Recover the amino acids of this structure.
């Protein structure tokens, strides 16, 4: 897809207009029930859990942007992931990205394990690991790309091809990259999932999830799960998320340009012992990211010398939000053990190298010099040359 088409398609998804009156945004249909004047020739909608025009507009827009047959919007990213995991049955085994977000690991460990689903965590950017961990009952690879918090880059095309050769499905959590930067279905994946609470909705004010299937058969199963479990997104939230989607390319371009600037600055400061950002040419995932994605995204992580340095940094931040979410207009940080990976046990975090000196950053839409100055003042303060930013 040409760059201009990629941007334009977010505004003109074909779903943006009200089908009934041609209003330039889809209305929020709140009704739970639709009147069937002729019950033997029913209208398209029946009952809100089973289908809703506002939700459908958002779902169809995402399906087009991701290049799948059908999209399914859920009440959160976790419900989209839960619905996708419900495609599997007792006795099935899944290969899952080792450093994926804590919620995925928690639902697998404490819910799906009770229903007999087995999991092996692997670095999905290492094909040998996938090969060595595959079992006779393996049914799918679940990739989170880029990974979280270490921004490891999986070659989705390579993994999907390998998965297909063994008859496995490939599921991709594309939250970090969004369909603007990568379209996993066009690289061979079967299902793409998002926490739309993040970059897609983009303003830290909606909780939503979406899953898009490449083929009708998978779409059919997912629709059954969405309807049967009642985890679908509300019409109000579908409206809000759809509204955010239109500005995703603009926001992403700006945020990822600042992310690269910040990542480069961080590598210059001696207090920072490691920077994880695939946009850096020195990053081990740089080449794969450059080849398979249209950008490097707005997320990065870094390590400071010690947990004490992290505490000092937090005290000095003035603009930055500190907490679990990401992908909003404001720059935010998460401390994995307290926020995005709090759902893991201490041992699970240790096993994944998630220590208390790691900071994950979601770079926002502020002026890029202000973002760098903010972190320079907070981290590199003993040589503080950053200009002062007044508290807002
Ligand atoms: C990559 C990723 N996927 C899914 C989720 C879950 O999304 P939600 O918080 O909307 O349930 C998160 C949450 O942080 C996430 O980081």
């Amino acid at each position: 897809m040409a760059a201009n088409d990629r941007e334009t398609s977010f505004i003109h998804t074909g779903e943006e207009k009200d089908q009934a009156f041609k209003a330039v945004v889809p209305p929020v249909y709140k009704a739970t029930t639709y009147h069937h004047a002729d019950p033997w020739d029913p209208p398209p909608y029946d009952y809100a859990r089973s289908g809703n025009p506002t939700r459908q507009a958002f779902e169809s827009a995402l399906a087009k942007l991701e290049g799948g047959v059908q999209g399914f919007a859920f009440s959160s990213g976790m419900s989209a992931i839960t619905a996708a995991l419900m495609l599997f049955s007792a006795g099935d085994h899944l290969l899952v990205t080792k450093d994926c977000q804590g919620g995925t690991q928690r639902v697998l460990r404490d819910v799906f394990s009770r229903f007999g689903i087995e999991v092996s965590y692997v670095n999905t950017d290492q094909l040998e690991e996938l090969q060595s961990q595959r079992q006779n009952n393996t049914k799918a690879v679940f990739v989170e790309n880029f990974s979280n918090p270490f921004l490891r880059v999986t070659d989705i095309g390579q993994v999907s091809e390998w998965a297909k050769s063994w008859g496995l499905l490939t599921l991709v959590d594309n939250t970090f990259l969004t369909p603007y930067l990568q379209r996993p279905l066009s690289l061979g994946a079967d299902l793409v999932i998002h926490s739309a609470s993040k970059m897609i909705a983009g303003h830290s004010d909606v909780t939503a999830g979406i899953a898009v299937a490449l083929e009708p058969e998978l779409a059919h199963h997912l629709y059954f799960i969405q309807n049967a479990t009642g985890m679908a997104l509300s019409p109000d939230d579908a409206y809000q998320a759809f509204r955010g989607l239109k500005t995703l390319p603009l926001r992403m371009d700006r945020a990822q340009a600042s992310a690269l600037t910040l990542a480069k600055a961080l590598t210059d400061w001696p207090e920072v012992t490691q920077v994880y950002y695939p946009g850096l040419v020195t990053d081990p995932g740089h080449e794969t990211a450059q080849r398979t994605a249209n950008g490097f995204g707005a997320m990065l992580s870094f390590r400071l010398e010690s947990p004490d340095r992290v505490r000092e940094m937090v005290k000095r931040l003035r603009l930055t939000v500190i907490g679990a979410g990401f992908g909003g207009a404001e720059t935010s940080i998460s401390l994995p053990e307290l926020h995005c990976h709090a759902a893991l046990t201490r041992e699970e975090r240790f096993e994944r190298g998630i220590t208390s000196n790691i900071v994950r950053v979601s770079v926002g839409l502020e002026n890029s010099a202000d973002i760098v100055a903010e972190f320079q003042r907070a981290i590199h303060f003993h040589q503080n040359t950053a200009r002062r930013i007044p508290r807002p």
